[in-house]
Amino acid sequence: LGRRTGRITMVLLLLGVFWLTISGANVPSLWLERLFAWGGRWLRLGAEAMALPPWLTGLLLDGAYDTAARVVAVMLPPMAIFFPLFTLLEDFGYLPRAAFLLDHRFEACGGCGKQALTMAMGFGCNAAGVIGCRIITSPRERLLAILTNALVPCNGRFPAMIVLIALFFSADSLAGAVILTGFVVLSVGMTFLAAAVLSRSVLPGKPSPMVLEIPPFRRPRVGQILLRSLLDRTAAVTGRAVTVAAPAGMVLWLLGHGTLGGQSLLQHLAAVLDPLGLVLGMSGAILAAFLLSFPANELLLPLLATILSGSAVLTETEGAALGTLLTAHGWTRQTALCTILFLLFHWPCATTCLTIRRETGSWRWTLLAMTVPTALGGILCFAVGLLL
User: Fold this and answer.
1) Side-chain-side CA neighbours of residue 190 (13 Å)
2) Is the dihedral of CA 235, 237, 238, 239 positive or negative?
């Protein structure tokens, strides 16, 4: 809570959590990919034994199964590390202190310090962060926190950010953690900016005083931490992602196999979006991947690799192969920077949007919650394209 050391300590803790997440998630992700690949081979043998038609096998296995498997393999290991670490800070008694440190910042923007807690929850899952806004008693400040929660990256966006940072900026885990922390600090700053603009336009009013009890530091309960973080949070978020990813995979399979003029519908969509993508420092293929990953942010890089390779099924996206594919299609550090910025600031995923609709009771506020980060991301990407 020190005036000079408090915020430095907060950033260092954030850096440590990200470094542990980045350095610890790679090997389990590889194990899960191999496990799901082995399971997919057995399922294909079963489909052949049952004499299923090729289109049904492709729809169920290449579409639903492969998509859900890739989402789980990418997002489960980072979540299994991040959520226990986050819960450890919560159980230790640190998160109320973070809210205290940030209270005057949020008050200056028209909000309250409790938004720091809901913002921290958004690092794990923006839908969970939106639900967490119920702890804010003021309706205006609660709505302000809901509308700006998606400005911090959720766990579904971290894997793609980590991969792009490693490919185009630094492969060293510590340097990558520093760069990732810089992007996260940027997202927090944009949260302050957006809250200030919204509180002076569509949500005017004075911030209410915050009364917050600072609990004593206590010994973390490791057993409860693992139970709450792995079962209540990690398993719940993974389950929601699978229920969205599986049907989305079927739609993607149909788009990949549907052709028009010798090209897949995915490639046609990328061509239509190419002019806008170039204005934003990216490409039509990248924007198409963003649009089609609306069900789950974890699908972004697999979709991008699928569109660029011309494949009809989701393509491998790990390691040097992805870097070679992206470089062959004209990717530079500027392209990677714009993609990361738009990954930070674009519309929330489908689960978060439905949660916002349920919490606010209005599609108007849901649309505004989608528009704010998207407009901000577009402005930043356009600015990067002009400056670099």
Assistant:
1) 26
2) positive
Q: What is the pLDDT of residues 101-147, one digit of tens each?
A: 887 888 888 887 778 878 877 877 788 788 888 878 888 989 999 99
* Cα separation of the two ends of the chain: 39
What pairing do the DSSP bridges indicate for beta strands 259-260 and 263-264? antiparallel
Which residues on adjacent β-strands are paired with residue 263?
260
How many CB atoms lie under 10 A from the CB of residue 39?
12
pLDDT tens-place string over residues 341-368:
999 999 998 888 988 998 999 999 999 9
Residue type, 317: T
Q: What is the pLDDT of residue 233?
A: 67
Task: Give the Cα separation of 318 and 315 in Å (integer).
Answer: 9
The pLDDT, as a whole number, for residue 281 is 92
Of 115, 338, 134, 111, residue with least CA distance to 203: 111
Q: 142: phi > 0 → left, psi -120 to 50 → alpha, else beta; which?
A: alpha
Question: Can you read off the two tokens belonging to residue 50?
Answer: 């049952």
264 forms beta bridges with 259
For residue 275, the model assigns a pLDDT of: 93
| Band (314; pLDDT cuts 50, 70, 90) | low
- 327 vs 325: CA distance, rounded Å: 6
Encoding tokens for residue 214? Answer: 């600072």
303 burial via Cβ count (<10 Å: 0-12, 13-18, 19+):
buried
Taken in order 145, 147, 151, 152, is the CA torsion positive or negative?
Answer: positive
Nearest to 272 by CA among 261, 259, 288, 260: 288
